[in-house]
Amino acid sequence: MKKEFKVISELILQNSKVLDVGCGDGELMKFLKDNKTSKIRGLEISKNRVQNCLSKGLTVIEGNAENDLQQFPNNSFDFVILSQTLQAFLDPEKVISELLRVGKKAIVTIPNFGYWKVRLNLLIKGTMPVTENLPNEWYNTPNLHMCTLRDFFNFCSKREIKIFKSLALKNDKTLNLSSKNLAWRNLESQLGIFLIEK
Amino acid sequence: MNKLKQLKNIIITKPQKLDCGKKISNFPISYETYGTLNEKKDNAILVFHALTGDQFASGKNPITNKDGWWSYALGSGKAIDTEKFFVICANVIGGCMGSYGPSTIDEETGKPIGTNFPVITINDMVNAQYNLLEHFKIDKLFAVIGGSMGGMQVLQFVSNFPDKAHIAIPIACTSSHSAQNIAFNELGRQAILADTNWKNGFYEQNKTSPDKGLAVARMAAHITYLSKKGLQEKFGRKLQERDDLKFSFDADFQIESYLRYQGSVFVDRFDANSYLYITRAMDYFDLSKQFNGNLSDAFSNTTSKFFVISFTSDWLYPTAENREIVIALNAIGADVGFVEIESDKGHDSFLLDVPDFLDTLGNYLKTNYKTVNEKRI
């Protein structure tokens, strides 16, 4: 399993109610279901993936986070997870506010556009960065709103969103992440993992 | 008619109050079963049929000699696997395959009840079928499953009996019959009523049969079960056994011939009055109205796990209406999964060979049956 999922699962309390937004084939859901909580739901946009999840006995709804989070009441989950998809939404700001309305806490992970290889790509080649984590070209990327770890820190402080806990992943190594080491972490890590709360 | 007497049935002795206010008792429910009920009685599935279905969901229908209406989904090794599950399917009241309906013979007159039969509702159908649980001494069903009107019965069942099914799978249905659907049903009913052979519903006594009206009703309804794309691909403007147009009102086009055929075979197996009563029951179905406009309240006590399924090309019970059920369930934190299956086969998709649908349904039942059993151990 992806290191990212292990880190996410460590943030989740036993027997809590969890919604995995963009749950894919349900890999994380299945792990959480087996190890943390049976009260887990998923939302996924791809029909095939929804069918795969349902086939595994996971409770998943076909839908899009931008429209379909509306149907969930306020605070109906303890944790809402959004893994590496925030940048793909038309309106990430709205999605974050929906996550924090539906969930008491949200876990958001962000592919870091401040990662040194990304920066170097643009600086040296003068082209939009293409890396392992961001394999698409500018013309076919689903990622509309890339941001850096610092951008996300700034966003949270502007919107008065509390960052409960933040971690960075550097080649599958978990590092602590805070405003103090942000400059360096923003350069060396590929992924940021944020536990946030309104 | 004699054949009908050989069907499996139970007589419900206990009086049942219908939504129209009338009470019925000592009435028959005809049913069929598939597979074997295990010792723990935890593998039972109640399948509800749609408008023109009956208890013969799988295998050969002994009356029509045709394959059961859900042969693609139900049987040995199929999605609803009869090697594993014990499946019960009953003819709805109002139907014409042995259950209490307008073609039931009135003992006093020796003639069919006809339009003296009370107007029934989806709620009445479900309450009548609930007796089957007692008959088989099943405390809790593993699942209730149905498509179209069968899906409406699933919703009504879990609402009426919130702790009697582990799994509820309403397919291609709605919680409230739309104006468009009422309109199509009315069209069908008017076709029957306009047939002079209908005789106010007492055609048996008059030795007539409103076949033309019923066939037209079926033809109109059949169009609504398909999709424009499906029709175009299957028939297009292809001509029926001729090289050119005949400048007449014969069936020049294959689609005409196909619809005429569908109409003509339907009248051999279905009772016109049953068609009137059952379409009426569908039109009256409005689950949220039963709960003062709040659909979530219909499920507030539910312990069932739901799986709602719709189809992309179904314009009769479109995804948006299926989604309303999902939204109402999510609003109360019920356990609900939902998928819209890609298919060009229209509303009929749930009856046909649609692998994505059948695979997902089959796997869902299999994995959940395991989970439910593990929990109990």
Keywords:
heterodimer; A: 198 residues; alpha/beta; Rossmann fold; eight-stranded mixed sheet; globular; B: 377 residues; Rna Polymerase Sigma Factor, Chain: A; 12 strands; 15% strand
| Quaternary class | heterodimer
Structural class of chain A: alpha/beta
Q: What is the level-2 CATH architecture name of the largest domain in chain B? A: 3-Layer(aba) Sandwich
Strand order, main sheet of chain A: write it out.
Answer: 3-2-1-4-5-8-6-7
Strand-pairing-aware structural class of chain B: alpha/beta
Using only CA atoms, what is the Rg of chain A? 16 Å
Q: Low-confidence spans of chain A: pLDDT under 50, at least 5 residues?
A: none
Proper CATH architecture of chain A:
3-Layer(aba) Sandwich
- Strand runs of chain B, count: 12
Spell out the CATH superfamily of chain A. Vaccinia Virus protein VP39
The description of the largest β-sheet of chain B is: 8 strands, mixed
Q: How would you describe what is shown here?
A:
The complex is a heterodimer of chains A (198) and B (377). With 198 residues, chain A is α/β, with parallel strands linked by helices. Chain A has one domain (3-197): Rossmann fold. Chain A contains eight helices and eight strands; from the N terminus they run H-E-H-E-H-E-H-E-H-E-H-H-E-E-H-E. An eight-stranded mixed sheet of chain A has the order 3-2-1-4-5-8-6-7, sandwiched between helices. By secondary structure, chain B is α/β, with parallel strands linked by helices. Chain B folds into two domains: 2-178 and 287-376, Alpha/Beta hydrolase fold, catalytic domain (Rossmann fold, 3-Layer(aba) Sandwich), CATH 3.40.50.1820; 182-278, Orthogonal Bundle (Rna Polymerase Sigma Factor, Chain: A). Chain B has eleven helices and twelve strands. Chain B has helices at 2-5, 122-135, 149-160, 179-193, 211-224, 228-234, 254-269, 272-284, 287-290, 319-331, 355-376; strands at 9-12, 16-17, 23-24, 27-34, 44-48, 74-75, 80-81, 86-90, 141-147, 165-171, 305-311, 335-341. In chain B, helix 4 (179-193) packs antiparallel against helix 8 (272-284). The radius of gyration of chain B is 21 Å and the shape is globular. The model of chain B has no long low-confidence stretch (mean pLDDT 96). Chain A binds chain B through residues 17, 41, 47, 50-51, 53-63, 71-73, 76, and chain B through 305, 307, 326-327, 330-331, 333, 335-342, 356, 359-360, 363-364, 367-368, 370-371.
